[in-house]
Amino acid sequence: MSEDGWISIGPEGRERADAVIADARSSLASAGFPVRSRRFPFAMHHDVYRVRLPRLPGGGRPRHADVARMLNAWAAGRPAPADYAWQAIEGAVREMVGRDSRLADKVPADVRTGIESVGGGDDFMRWASGRASEAA
Predict the structure, then answer these.
(1) Integer Cα distance of 18 and 8 in angstroms
(2) What does the radius of gyration of the chain's CA atoms come to, in whole angstroms?
């Protein structure tokens, strides 16, 4: 872990995550999802999870930076480097479907499988909720 609390996934893990994101972006774009934005997938993920995650000690909602650190720490304990990317993609897909429910039935099979590999976001939520209860 670095001084600022970030856990490095290393160059191989980063390459794997980048490849997963590029493939998912392509699949989602072909299915009509608006993934051309620089916000895909991380900023979209963080928008969703800053509301879904438990409030911080003191009662405030997590900021984007808080969600980013949580995602990073969660991924560091996961067996597959691709989980980091799939969790971010899950949040992005959740945000896009929340904005346009017609997209719900259009999630490509490869993306659906990747999202399922991280429990559809539930693995991250359980982990983060456990950390919040430990901090309380």
Answers:
(1) 14
(2) 15
Per-residue pLDDT of the chain (136 residues; tens, 9 = 90+): 444 455 566 777 788 899 999 999 999 999 999 998 899 999 999 999 999 998 888 888 999 999 999 999 999 889 888 999 999 999 999 999 999 999 999 999 999 999 999 999 999 999 998 875 555 4
Write down the H helix ranges in the chain: 10-30, 42-52, 64-76, 82-99, 109-116, 122-135
How far apart are the C-alpha atoms of 48 and 66, rounded to whole Å?
Answer: 13
Tokens (6 digits) for 122: 């539930």
User: The whole model's pTM is what?
Assistant: 0.90
Cβ-based neighbours of 96, under 8 Å, separated by 6 or more = 28, 33, 34, 35, 44, 103
Question: Dihedral angle at the C-alpha atoms of 135, 115, 23, 7, nearest 10 degrees?
Answer: 20
- Do residues 81 and 12 make contact, with C-beta atoms less than 8 angstroms apart? yes
3-state secondary structure of 136: coil
